[in-house]
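Q: what does this look like with magnesium ion bound?
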Amino acid sequence: MAGISIEALLGRFKGCMLGALAGDCLGAPFEMDSSVALSVLNNYINKLADPKVRVPYKAFTDDTAMTQSVAQSLIDEKSFSEVDMAKKFVRAYYKEPRRGYGANIVNVFAALKATNFKDVWAPAALQFDGSGSYGNGGAMRVAPVALFTAAASTEEAINMARDSALITHSHAQGYNGAILQCLAVRNALLSPSSSLNPQEYVEGLISTLSKMRNPREEDQDLCSEGEGHGGFVDSLHVLQELLGRSDQVTREEVVERLGNDVSAINSVPTAIYAFLRALQPIQGIESDSEFLRSIVYAISLGGDTDTIASMAGAIAGAYHGSQGVPEFLGRHCEAWEGALQQAEELHKIVYKNDKP
Ligand code: R7I
Ligand code: MG
Ligand code: MG
């Protein structure tokens, strides 16, 4: 385990679940803004940090609702069960449909319900005339899979990330985005504190993706040049180049080259960049918490702010641990205690060896 104690990993599990939640809650009010001024975000955070300020809590969105379902399914089943996970997604959606779900995923929920979960893979495969969704919904909810498979092989983590995404996202970019986000969380989680070298971290992701055995032909999309921003490996090369000259890189350039929209290909690499960029001070962002900086920076890029901030937060939290998460966030984010509890339960399953 590269020298990280099981106790320290509990802090990392908590940080990861809290980061996913905080990014969603803090980012949601800005979703689809073209970009957000850093002065606005500094004021926003300062206000939340002020103990005298009483504001309504920040509600979570579909990102968290689905992350909760993934975590709870793994906790209840102590393994991956596509039927249980699909049922939990559908139950959460029909209980609270107004959480800002993607426009098309709701058709999957309706079809799963109408067919009584007979073939859980089928509705997702029918999306978009059979090409499947390339949205970032599979990636945004995958963090608990990275935690659950922390002590397992990389291959197991990859397979579970893919399967958890396939319940709703059968386009190669949809589930490959989930795989990349899972690996990003996993590698941050398992990196000893203060030892992470950003270039090596990205190199590790590239190497794992490039070596991945592809059971499906479409997975080649991961490694080959594709349309738009290209495959995920291409984006990771761009990310390395941006990291190499961080100080001169504008937020506009990050958006132009990595993207900030609801597709997985244009948001997962962006979230990874936000995490890595925030390891250093960023001109214009006041917070000296590296964890919070990653979320603020992700939001400042605009576009799919809740999701990119949630994915960046999950990675940052997995690396910095709960001690890196400013306490005041707990006063403002809905479902804070629930995220902590799920982190504890996942940790218990993974490290107390109480699998059935
Ligand atoms: O991926 P998904 O769960 O959406 C997640 C996003 C996050 O930003 C959440 O915060 C929430 O706001 O939604 O839901 P989907 O409906 O599967 O995909 C999201 C959107 O991506 C779709 O509504 C489409 O606009 C677009 N999209 C596609 N468009 C054309 N062709 C996804 N796949 C396709 C496609 O194949
Ligand atoms: Mg959302
Ligand atoms: Mg979103």
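The longest helix spans residues 6-27. The CA atoms of residues 32 and 303 lie 4 Å apart.
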